[in-house]
Design goal:
It is a single chain. By secondary structure, the protein is mostly helical. The protein contains 21 helices and 4 strands. The chain has a two-stranded antiparallel sheet with strand order 1-2. Strand 1 and strand 2 form a beta hairpin. The chain is globular, with a radius of gyration of 21 Å. The chain starts with a helix and ends in a 5-residue tail after the last helix.
Amino acid sequence: NMFSKINTILDTIDAYVWGIPLIVLILSVGLFLTIRLKGVQFTNLGRAFKYIFKDETDGKHGEVSSFAALCTALSATIGTGNIVGVATAIVSGGPGALFWMWLAALVGTATKYAECLLAVKFRQVDEDGHVVGGPFNYIEHGMGPKWKWLAKIFAFFGIGVGLLGIGTFTQVNSIASAVKNFFDPDMAHTVSLFGGNYSWATVIAGLFLTVCVGLVVLGGIQRIAKVSEVIVPFMAVLYAVIIIIANITAVPAALASIVKSAFTGSALAGGAVGSMFVAMQKGVARGIFSNESGLGSAPIAAAAARTKEPVRQGLVSMTGTFIDTIVICTMTGLSIVIAGSWLNPELEGVAITMDAFQKGLPFPSFVATFSLMLCLVFFAFTTILGWNYYGERCVEYLFNRNKGVVMGYRILYILAVFIGPYMTVKAVWNIADIFNALMAFPNLIALLALNGVIVKETRDFHAKHNGSY
């Protein structure tokens, strides 16, 4: 039928854009920046964490605190990728996918530092204190006006990712299925809609979510930042603590099997070299999808921070990659590997993580299911908000802050949330993946072109604070 044809086409495009070229590009930009910046993500990690909680006293421009900017970025970053994406990666690539995810994160942290530094350096602040900044700004003002076409391409794909990709469908889908799996696993109460049968749980969850998103989105960045500052730290800590406490004794063995499987691949995938490559590809792709290093999304949030120091915000923002991948994704991955849920061929997506939680948590299974549902709902809800903000800034850049267009975008966004639960999963992930990759290219080109600026800013900052942290 037509749908399977469309899926096949999408599969092909997806495999192509997320193929070796992009993965090599993202990793090599990360490696290049790591070397140019002398391992800033390792030498300055402590300092970066210190800055998170110490707001800059004389940061004049900007709309939110450094911490709020980080939370807004994290709210967009910590999403279903951390729960569902990790599961998919382990199923197709074996536990070794996690190892490659870590590797992508380690070099990606330098990329995140660089892009957020540039975002603050080249942001535009209006008379009324309204900030627009991100890759489109540093492409146009950093690389020069003749590159404006590249900036516009970035903004266009940014809008696409927000509306059709990470921002809406993938998140809403995960929320709806988690709610359904908890309240109506056997599809006992269904209703016919859009030519399909859906559980009432799905329909009600979808409507409720649409209303909540509408209320926050229409409030702008301050409201998004406020919601994020409360929910993000709470949900991240809770998620990590629950899993580790439950499985502490099994962790060393699980880590060993992750590292071993990174180089041998999983038995399911066939020959060793081939399956090692699958582990690598899935791990890196899902890792990037999850921590968004190099995609150019976080810099849009970083630009709104009240700070005068691009380097400082770069440091604060780079902790996002660490928190997202090294902490949250690892938690999910460990619980799945420890429980062995990835080996069950009947499970897919969120069901894998659900199974791991039920086996791994020392509670009755409905409590485990409920707690995972709650995490998912919060993770996904905040991502919907964060990406709305990103998409909106891209719209403002493309259409010179035309208020009507921005309003139109918000309405489309809320509509996308509304129809999200009824979209088929496979096609949706594919579209999200494709747009995601296409956003990364202009941004990575800019990071390479402006690497001199990044190094100079970093050097000046260190000279000014002459090594005294």
